[in-house]
Amino acid sequence: MPVSDTVARDDTDAEGDRLPINELFASLQGEGKLAGVPSTFVRTSGCNLRCWFCDSFHTSWEPTHAWMSLDEIVAEVESLSPEHVVVTGGEPLVHDETDALLSALADDYHLTVETNGTLDTDAPVDLASVSPKLASSTPTPENAPADVDPGVWTERHENARVDLDALASLVEHAAEFQLKFVVTGRDDLDEIESLVADVRGVADREVRDSDVLLMPEGQTREQLARTRTEVADLAASFGYRYTPRLHVDLWNDAPET
């Protein structure tokens, strides 16, 4: 469902039992352990971080959305065929109503929540797809998207990008989890190794190397072509999993993919 009546808002808090929805569509999951699985994507607008390479610019740097009630969202999901639902963003867990949506869908669907790992949830989650943000994600005047001044977000993002308590809670709570890192190059691996060790130290659940996924940074086929081989080699060298970005390979940077 293309959200044709989207409006820009300064706030990111949902009103009442509504959520700000940027997109709602059926496609293939492009990333992670379930790559290739037909899925319905519910993309909320609004995020508490600002990665310079964000691939959903209109949920973070310039949020646009239509407000939909939970009943409207559930009805739209039911009109589509996939048995897997991915609640994503932006950062869907900034909205309290996301928990209610997950609870409403839990009996009938396999639920993935894609989150940056700075917030947790008590709602039913089959797969917590947690993407902790590395130092290389922090926006600066040099790397920020075109025509965007990162302003206060440089410091705000850097200070908020890792929350070990939230990471441990997500790892422990969900039926399954994956730690999915966006990798810009070899320099990211020292921080990934350190952060994985920290999560293992605080989480009351085993974090296997196979639960750690390395994903190349890149929003277009051309960008991925420059990074995927290096990241695949890093995954093989460090014993982690490599995850493709199938939606980019198949449809480049088209919306609703």
Automatic annotation (TrEMBL):
PANTHER family according to UniProt: 7-CARBOXY-7-DEAZAGUANINE SYNTHASE (PTHR42836:SF1)
Enzyme class: lyase
Cofactor note: Binds 1 [4Fe-4S] cluster. The cluster is coordinated with 3 cysteines and an exchangeable S-adenosyl-L-methionine. Binds 1 S-adenosyl-L-methionine per subunit.
Quaternary state and interactors: Homodimer.
GO MF: 4 iron, 4 sulfur cluster binding; carbon-nitrogen lyase activity; magnesium ion binding; S-adenosyl-L-methionine binding
Taxonomic lineage from the root: Archaea, Methanobacteriati, Methanobacteriota, Stenosarchaea group, Halobacteria
Pathway field: Purine metabolism; 7-cyano-7-deazaguanine biosynthesis
Domain Radical SAM core: 34-253
Binding site for Mg(2+): S56
Native source species: Haloferax sulfurifontis ATCC BAA-897
Annotated positions binding S-adenosyl-L-methionine: F53, C54, D55, G90, S131, P132, K133
Protein name, entry field: 7-carboxy-7-deazaguanine synthase
